[in-house]
Write a structure and sequence with these properties.
The chain is an all-alpha fold and 204 residues long. The chain has one domain. It is built from eight helices and no strands.
């Protein structure tokens, strides 16, 4: 049980660590278009992301798939930038037909699931460095993944609460708030991409 709690804490700390804020930025970008009243949609969205990163986290940690770590470190901020840009074109369900709203929402689920696959490989880099010569990795893998999920939920809770404060108390418009948050996230993601060493090597 002690080992389980250790890896659970490591998973939680990894995704909530401000020093490695790329995964935090992605979760913020996913939630930026939603309000606290839409928590069910957000929960489904985060679950789609969890399914995606759980698959590749397990496969990569078990060494069933192989990839270039440098490439994944470049792709992660790209997924953040794309998600933030998509937010600029998101249509609120109140301002669109039910069919259009369903397409928008389904598209975001697919996006979260697909990009989760990339982030899972990024998580596995860290987890494999922790495992060392562990004989059995099943329990650490499960605990680490649960820790990631709990960390995600904390980030989601903070973002939705802040959104509630801005929209309800400060009374900012929802569109303005979405554009501001998504713009900041896009700018930070672009900075990560531009400063990525692997991209520099590809350009040379």
């Amino acid at each position: 049980m002690d080992e389980f709690l250790i890896y659970l804490r490591l998973g939680f700390d990894h995704i909530t660590d401000p020093g490695g804020y790329d995964h935090i930025l992605f979760v913020i970008a996913l939630c930026a278009v939603y309000t606290l009243q839409q928590w069910r949609q957000v929960l489904i969205l985060v679950t789609a992301f969890t399914i995606g990163h759980s698959i590749t986290l397990a496969l990569a940690t078990l060494q069933l798939i192989h990839y270039k770590t440098e490439l994944i470190e470049l792709l992660i901020p790209i997924t953040i930038l794309i998600t933030a840009i998509v937010n600029f074109f998101f249509q609120d369900s109140k301002a669109s037909t039910n069919k259009t709203s369903a397409i928008n929402q389904s598209g975001r689920y697919v996006l979260a699931l697909s990009f989760g696959l990339i982030h899972g490989m990024g998580f596995s880099n860290y987890l494999r460095s922790l495992l060392g010569r562990e004989v059995s990795i099943t329990q650490p893998l499960l605990a680490f993944n649960i820790g990631l999920e709990l960390g995600q939920l904390v980030i989601v809770g903070i973002v939705l609460t802040l959104t509630y404060v801005v929209l309800t108390i400060i009374r900012s418009s929802r569109l303005r708030w979405t554009l501001i948050v998504s713009g900041i996230v896009a700018g930070m993601a672009l900075s990560l991409i531009v400063n990525n060493e692997y991209l520099g090597e590809l350009i040379k």
